[in-house]
Design goal:
The chain is an alpha+beta fold. Helices cover about 30% and strands about 25% of the residues.
């Protein structure tokens, strides 16, 4: 008798509320599967946005206080040009080959006041709160994501009209910033069309800017900070599909015809399965839990893969595909695996409250996951 297999697939599209999701993430709550927003979209502050802004700002100020060895994470841009790093950053080599860096406040402060923009690239590598936010976006959008921060205090624009080769979500954290976004999505225009979006963002607001869409950003004369979450949905897998189609066309002598995602009702499920085969892993280590099997009440637990696992269920077993491996688990673990596979960080207490497993079995699953590197258990 053939065992029925049911794939766990993404839910139907719903509006993406970045701040609501960030709030849920930072307060330890879960979030539903949310697809990327399409087109230029502007969201007013969600409930609790002030607390989220303060939490994320703490990560920004922390990164500024200790840039450490990551000098390349910082750029200062004035009038469209990068300011030589030696003017506003000091570096020295010590302890063998370790590069120590520190910001020079005097020059940096005056430059920002004149209208220069301080850019912190890949902020997720410098602060844990931003890292968790970035990881959550990657799971919800099924995309490679990264977080850049922009700080300015002048009324000028360090960047003229330009477009980016990736989609972006803008989270305004402090002060106000003036955004103009072309109504011709994907046009890569050098100017902005009449009737384009023209708004001043205040803390708690979220803006979606599609790739290849012209936009101009300028300060309003006060200290302002925003985060840009850049992302590329299914980028690697789409490249695989395109390469495969081109190879088939070369072999058969036919012309490949691009298909819209809506033409393939199973494509989202297929892409989700392909992403689960990628070996990409989140940063983090479970050495203590892996060696001792100990999981404390405050241990932070999250799935180890950078992209969501792909889960199929049979009569008695789950088959979990993650980081290129297939793991077979007892069907009784289905609810707990589903909670963990959402990608957020949960403590043992939070997980136990929603799981239907006895405490001993839950701890055994977590220890097994840490030992076999599909769960990260830290703290």
């Amino acid at each position: 008798m053939t065992t029925p297999v049911t794939p766990t697939v993404p839910t139907a599209p719903a509006p993406f509320d970045a701040f609501a999701h960030a709030q849920a993430l930072l307060t330890g709550l879960g979030a539903d599967e949310l697809p990327p927003a399409s087109g230029v979209r502007l969201h007013e502050p969600a409930e609790g946005a002030d607390a989220v802004c303060e939490a994320l700002l703490a990560g920004v100020w922390s990164a500024l206080a200790r840039p450490g060895a990551l000098a390349t994470n910082f750029r200062l841009v004035e009038s469209g040009r990068q300011v030589d790093r030696s003017r506003w950053m000091r570096s020295r080599v010590g302890d063998g080959e370790i590069l120590h860096t520190a910001l020079v406040p005097g020059y940096l402060h005056s430059a920002v006041e004149r209208g220069a923009t301080l850019v912190i690239s890949h902020l997720e590598a410098l602060d844990e709160r931003i890292m968790l936010l970035c990881e959550a976006f990657e799971y919800q959008l099924r995309a490679r994501a990264w977080v850049n921060c922009y700080i300015t205090a002048g009324a000028n624009s360090a960047f003229d009209v330009h477009s980016d080769d990736h989609d972006a979500l803008i989270l305004q954290l402090l002060g106000t910033k003036h955004w103009e976004v072309d109504s011709r999505v994907g046009a890569r225009a050098r100017g902005l069309a009449p009737g384009s979006l023209d708004r001043v963002l205040t803390p708690g607001m979220c803006l979606s800017v599609p790739r290849d869409t012209a936009h101009r950003v300028s300060g309003t004369g006060e200290l302002t900070v925003h985060l840009t979450v850049g992302y590329e949905p299914f980028a690697d897998v789409r490249e695989e599909i395109s390469a495969a189609r081109a190879l088939v066309a070369t072999t058969t002598g036919t012309t490949p015809t691009p298909r819209a995602e809506s033409d393939r009702p199973d494509q989202l499920d297929y892409l989700a399965g392909r992403l689960a085969l990628r070996p990409d892993r989140r940063p983090g280590a479970s050495l203590r839990s892996a060696l001792t099997g100990e999981i404390g009440a405050t241990t932070r637990i999250r799935w180890a893969s950078r992209f969501p696992p792909y889960v199929t269920t049979g009569d008695e077993h789950l088959t979990v595909t993650t980081m290129g491996r297939r793991i077979r688990l007892d069907r009784r673990l289905e609810r707990t695996v589903a909670l963990l596979a959402r990608g957020g960080a949960l403590t043992l207490d939070q997980l136990a409250a929603d799981s239907d497993l006895p405490d001993a079995e839950l701890r055994a699953l977590l220890a097994f996951g840490a030992r076999h590197d599909f769960l990260i258990c830290e703290g």
